[in-house]
Batch of 2 targets.
Target 1
Amino acid sequence: MRGIRTLPTGVERTFGADEIIVTKTDPRGVLTYANDVFLRLSACTEEEALGQPHNLIRHPDMPRAVFKLLWDTLGRREEIFAYVLNLALDGAHYWVFAHVTPSFDRAGKLVGYHSNRRRPDPESVLAVKQVYDRILHTERGRPTKGAAVDSGWKQLQEELDGQTYDEFVWTITNRIGR
Ligand SMILES: Cc1cc2nc3c(=O)[nH]c(=O)nc-3n(C[C@H](O)[C@H](O)[C@H](O)COP(=O)(O)O)c2cc1C
């Protein structure tokens, strides 16, 4: 699989303020839908994307603790807004402001997840990156994946300093342009 060994090239890719990157997954996070904007930004074809786990575009500079928060939140049947750095299959990277929601059938059974992503402001990315980099730093010093998640999670709480991640995200997002 091409994506697994992709090394970041350091090339940043961006997209239009009027564009939305959309994907849908099954309950395990396997891609079932990807729009053209996703395919363009991620430098992959629909055939390469569908049927793959969403970590296809995971960037090594994304803290594990943020994905724990994402899955914990979705596991409570709640939606989440999050800043995410993604790695395209050609090694370029792009930042998104994602809104990920669980989808339910009429009986209330989880049928999958849906993510809509907009282009973040560069100032928001700078603020988030500082926090993520400190979390990454603690995670990278740990010998196992489990220990990395634990230390990253503690660092995330320290960074939030009593705020929820949701409050933090909206503080950063709303202060732009004022
Ligand atoms: C609807 C949905 C969208 C997701 N979008 C992304 C994404 O854009 N980038 C990403 O790295 N992970 C995304 N994830 C999380 C991945 O499933 C995965 O947890 C993450 O890439 C970390 O991978 P790892 O556990 O293998 O380290 C998404 C998950 C869901 C359910």
Target 2
Amino acid sequence: MGKVKIGIIGTGSISNMHMAGYTRLENVEVVAACDIKEERVKEFAKRYHIPNVFTDYNEMLKMKDLDAVSVTTWNNIHAPASIAALNAGKHVLCEKPLALNAKQAQEMVEASKKSGKLLMVGFCRRFGENAIALKEMIDNGDLGNLYYAKTGCLRRWGNPGGWFSDKKRSGGGPVIDLGVHMIDLIRYLSGKPKAVSVTASTFNSMGMRPEVKGIQKYNSADYSEFNDVEDCATSIIKFDNGMTLFFETSWVQNIKEDSLYLELFGDKAGAKMEPEFELYESRYNYLRNTKPILDPNGSGFEHNFIEETKHFISCITDGTKCINPAEDGLELMKIIDAIYQSAETGHEVIL
Ligand SMILES: NC(=O)c1ccc[n+]([C@@H]2O[C@H](COP(=O)([O-])OP(=O)(O)OC[C@H]3O[C@@H](n4cnc5c(N)ncnc54)[C@H](O)[C@@H]3O)[C@@H](O)[C@H]2O)c1
């Protein structure tokens, strides 16, 4: 096939990371961009020399010379835009979370099957070299049987506001924004077990704290202080491979500093992937810690997007098996629905 013709739906912050990938690929041409904000999409198209500009994705999807789209909108537009694109015969790379909930995600998976077009979910962290290395070790049995994992992504003061903190448009707070990556990584690394039960608490104790002075935080492009999502959450998730995951996340919490951690424990060894890669094992009955040497840039934000878009295009052009199929996005939405349901009812949710 000739060049793969791409359209971008949603030209806010993260679309620039998709462009960082697409613009590096010789067999790709980004031919269209769409955003409901006319000024923003015009400026984006000018920056990247994109010839066709739209404010309605349904108009963009009428383009015959368009093979695939990136959906990089607010979360509530992921399902309608992806389904419209699939129905119009386009392949879709949709940002995480796949949808607002599992019901929408299921409809997306069905639209992909019906159209025969690829729906890939943007779990970009799977493309980090740290994740690739750890997956290879786990797949080769270096950790033995995995029975426990823990992961967290905690911010002391980091609610981005705007659509992120408006539940109608986001589906929730740090659980659906940050947690989706961390829980996905645990599932992916441990061989994609299915969750069988979820117990969770979410807290709306701190709010957004816009009054905080002295430091800067990342604010959404269309910043507002409306906030009806959780500011913190904790959960125990049990999987059908016998593994239990402890998970916690926050946007606002009285902690010393922000932190990110991910650890998996097997009966042969333990591994920490974040904040730094370490293995805890034993040889000749001596306990020892080892530290694989990895390229420090190989797991960076932009690197992961470059690899993710490269993989998406290779799935389209070479029939490469997609490592981020929409079904994985759906499994995550089931877990996230269960976290919110358990928090609301105060009971364990059996999946
Ligand atoms: N993979 C990652 O690590 C990562 C990081 C950041 C954001 N994201 C995801 O990317 C998505 C976008 O996040 P962002 O930070 O770029 O937000 P953003 O607010 O900067 O950009 C979203 C854009 O979507 C546009 N939009 C809204 N409705 C639209 C519609 N109907 N048609 C066309 N455009 C529409 C908005 O006007 C805005 O310009 C979210 O789903 C977010 O979860 C993923």
